[in-house]
Write a structure and sequence with these properties.
The termini are far apart. This protein has seven helices and no strands. With about 140 residues, the protein is an all-alpha fold.
């Protein structure tokens, strides 16, 4: 460890050694690395992270899976008390299909799983209907 790292190390406040613990916290690799990470890794601006999450809506033609993955990824840095609830709300409020969004909003208290299942089923149905119509148009034109 270099001189600069040693100076930083000396500023750390280590937890008190637990009774019966084999190692002193100052000798615990994971504790030391965690303290260095906390010192050097910049803290996230939660407000800024949430400004990225809240306006995210499903793009035109974007599959539900892609939208769900995007809001799930964005939620990771938002420090929500209840991430599942936040993802559920953003999923329902951000759906392109307002009919499905209204249906979910009228339910008493839909779970994230219910919202995902409903959105996926609707997406598959719309895709199937659109592909079917495209196929019929092709056979009529042929």
């Amino acid at each position: 460890m270099g001189l600069d790292a040693t100076k930083v190390y000396k500023t750390f406040k280590f937890p008190v050694r637990a009774e019966g613990a084999a190692n002193d916290p100052q000798d615990d690799y994971n504790i030391v690395i965690g303290l260095f990470d906390a010192y050097f890794v910049p803290k996230k601006n939660i407000f800024h992270e949430r400004t990225q999450f809240y306006p995210r809506s499903q793009h035109n033609g974007e599959p539900v899976e892609t939208f769900l993955r995007a809001i799930s990824d964005l939620s990771l840095t938002c420090n929500f008390d209840n991430p599942e609830e936040a993802i559920r709300d953003r999923l329902v409020l951000g759906l392109q299909d307002q009919e499905v969004a209204r249906k979910l909003q009228l339910e008493e208290n839909p779970t994230l799983e219910t919202a995902i299942s409903t959105a996926r089923s609707n997406w598959k149905l719309i895709k199937w209907v659109c592909l079917g119509k495209a196929g019929m148009t092709q056979s009529i034109l042929s």
